[in-house]
Design goal:
The complex is a heterodimer of chains A (about 240) and B (about 375).
Chain A lengths: L1 H16 L4 E2 L2 H10 L4 H14 L3 H11 L7 H15 L3 H11 L2 H4 L2 H17 L3 H18 L1 H11 L18 H18 L7 H17 L2 E2 L2 E2 L7 E2 L4
Helix pairs in contact in A: 1-12, 3-4, 5-6, 5-11, 8-9, 8-10, 8-11, 9-10
Chain B lengths: L2 H44 L7 H15 L1 H26 L15 H14 L3 H10 L3 H22 L4 H9 L1 H6 L4 H15 L3 H12 L7 H10 L17 H19 L6 H22 L6 H4 L34 E3 L5 E3 H7 L7 E2 L6 E2 L5 E2 L3
Antiparallel strand pairs in B: 1-2, 1-5, 3-4
Chain lengths: ~240, ~375
């Protein structure tokens, strides 16, 4: 947070200087950026936060040893969370549900939407494996009552069952439900819920920081032309269009 | 028509009649009571030795009658009844024109065409026996067969649908699938949806799933929302009435589907949904009152009605009778025709071509627009198409 504050203050000062649309040369910009001091420990904390939140246990362990940065949670608990995530991502939803309940039985009880999505993913896996009769039986027993209680659940259920109307499911309008991205989406949802139940922030700080950078740049665009970062992956300063 | 006014007047007459009747009954009761009393007196007199003066008794009876005064009692209510009746009669005369022949005028129409119109009406309504009989009587049984056939097919389909049998309708939809798709109709999907629901109601989930794959999935690109809902129904097979989709079981769905099918069927035939004769009669019923009013105004000028070819009074028809747009020139007050089309002037206002030619002296000079201060060059006016 202190790092964020430094960046925000610096940008505010730059903004104050620009009474009208002002051209800032690359040399001027780079000098201003070099005046911003970011402590190495803050950087290390950010990286560790990302690795821990996203569940990269081995990387976090190695990073801890090399940098001396301590994670703010017990790495052992990450292993359990990652086991759940891996189970969902590989389509083992039943196993994932068991693991979640082992961790904390209240997570699914207090989060009906998450539970519905896990059951939905389970239905998707049954359909993917061509077990039509079993899929319909499962949907009728477990998901239909949920759909009766909640209109948005019902609509999601309709979309999922609609997969069965097509012989060639990969080419049908609701085919994206069978994508790996659907598994990842459900896995992320589970991960976030577990983190919340463990009183940890469910999103890593680094993406939030980058979002704020982009937002600040957008605001600054209204008042000045300067070398801006367009590609976050390379973080290259690009000369302003004059 | 203001039927409530007539009903009110009728109720008033009824009320007065009841009042008058009860008054009359009351008077009669009084008279009868007096007579019975006198009879009792006379009867008891005969049973004794005492001699009674009959004349005196009868005089007393007469005096009682005078005291009752039945005529004056009934007079008031009778008068009121008479007034109400008279008013009612006048009201009826006002609202129910006894002589609608004033609005009649003789027009020569080809008998064959008229027969065709009448027969078409019967077949359109599904009255095949009457239609056949009519055509045989007027001596045109051959053209009847041609006209009749498609309507027979249509009513067979509709009759089957009344028994919740969609097979003839689905066969028809299959045969005409391409034409229906061109006209943008979604009735094929609706028919298949209804059939799908029927299969579900019979409790066969596998059969329903197979039906969906065969007949519903081709509509996926354009009607995915509908298909999703129908597939959701699979989870409530056999108990659809207790599901979020119970509305699909409503009997009114069958009525709507039948009406939609009839509309599309007539559309493919190039026929109107309602028979031309019934449309004409319905429009005529709507137009008759203003026409009669106009004729009463014109009563002083004989025979002029017979010769005019355009009404000088506006006649408003409901939206259901407006099939396509027309343009009436504000200058000449005549309806635009192909020979005299509406023209868009450079100022944005519209006049008929002949009016423009007249006002511009056959395109030889600039004229002023009747609506605004613009000067108009006839050469720059463009024809409008509706």
């Amino acid at each position: 947070m202190s790092l964020l504050w430094l960046v925000i203050r610096q940008l505010a000062e730059i903004e104050a200087m620009a009474a009208s649309k002002k051209l800032i040369t690359r040399e001027e910009w780079e000098k201003k950026l070099s005046d911003v001091k970011i402590r190495k420990e803050d950087m290390n904390k950010l990286v560790m936060n990302f690795l821990v939140t996203e569940g990269y246990v081995e990387a976090a362990e190695k990073f801890r040893m090399e940098s001396g940065t301590e994670p703010d949670i017990d790495l052992a608990t990450i292993t359990d969370r990652m086991a759940v995530k891996k189970a969902v991502q590989s389509g083992n939803v039943e196993d994932a549900i068991e693991k979640v309940n082992d961790l904390n039985p209240e997570i699914l009880d207090t989060n009906p939407q998450l539970f519905f999505h896990l059951q939905q993913q389970r239905l998707i896996e049954l359909i993917r494996n061509g077990k039509v009769e079993e899929a319909l039986e499962f949907a009728q027993e477990e998901l239909a009552p949920r759909g009766e209680e909640n209109q948005s659940f019902l609509e999601e259920l309709e979309r999922t069952v609609a997969l069965l109307a097509f012989e060639d499911v990969s080419n049908c309008p609701v085919g994206e439900l069978l994508d790996i991205s659907q598994r990842l989406k459900t896995a992320s949802e589970v991960n976030a819920a577990i983190l919340t139940s463990q009183s940890h922030e469910k999103d890593p700080k680094l993406p939030s920081l980058l979002k704020m950078l982009l937002c600040a740049q957008n605001q600054l665009d209204e008042k000045a032309a300067y070398p801006r970062v367009n590609d976050l992956s390379t973080a290259t300063l690009e000369d302003p269009a004059v | 028509m203001e039927l409530s006014t007539i009903k009110d007047a009728f109720d008033r007459v009824t009320k007065k009649q009841k009042l008058s009747c009860s008054k009359t009954q009351e008077a009669i009761d009084q008279i009868r009571q007096e007579i019975e009393s006198v009879l009792d007196t006379l009867q008891s007199a005969n049973n004794t030795d005492h001699e009674l003066d009959y004349k005196t008794v009868l005089n007393e009876l007469k005096a009682s009658f005078l005291l009752i005064a039945p005529l004056s009692q009934m007079e008031g209510t009778q008068k009121e009844l008479n007034v109400a009746l008279t008013k009612y009669g006048k009201l009826l005369e006002k609202h129910f024109n006894p002589d609608i022949s004033k609005a009649y005028r003789n027009i020569d129409i080809d008998r064959h065409t008229l027969n065709q119109i009448i027969a078409n009406h019967f077949y359109h309504q599904g009255l095949f026996e009457i239609g056949d009989h009519f055509m045989s009587v007027v001596g045109e049984p051959e053209s009847a067969a041609i006209m009749k056939f498609p309507f027979v097919e249509m009513y067979q389909i509709l009759e089957a649908m009344q028994n919740q049998n969609l097979e003839p309708a689905l066969n028809w939809a299959s045969t005409n699938g391409d034409k229906l798709a061109q006209s943008g109709s979604d009735i094929v999907l609706k028919l298949h949806s209804m059939q799908f629901v029927k299969v579900l109601q019979n409790g066969s989930r596998e059969e329903a799933l197979h039906y969906a794959r065969m007949h519903l999935s081709p509509f996926a690109t354009s009607h995915m929302t509908d298909i999703q809902k129908l597939m959701g129904c699979l989870l409530w097979t056999g108990k659809l009435d207790r599901s979020p989709y119970h509305a699909l079981l409503s009997p009114s769905n069958w009525d709507k589907l039948a009406e939609e099918l009839k509309r599309q069927f007539c559309n493919l035939l190039g026929q109107s949904y309602n028979s031309p004769l019934s449309v004409t009669v319905a429009a005529g019923v709507q137009v008759l009152p203003p026409l009669l009013k106009f004729m009463n105004v014109m009563a002083g000028k004989k025979n002029e009605w017979q010769s005019m070819n355009q009404l000088p009074v506006p006649v408003e028809l409901d939206r259901e009778f407006q099939f396509h747009s027309i343009f009436v020139c504000p200058v000449s007050k005549e309806q635009a025709t192909e020979d005299n089309p509406p023209m868009l002037m450079s100022c944005g206002h519209v006049l008929c071509k002949q009016s423009i030619l007249k006002m511009s002296k056959n395109s030889t000079k600039v004229f002023k627009c009747p609506y605004c201060p613009f000067d108009i060059d006839a050469a720059q006016c463009k024809q409008l198409y509706f």
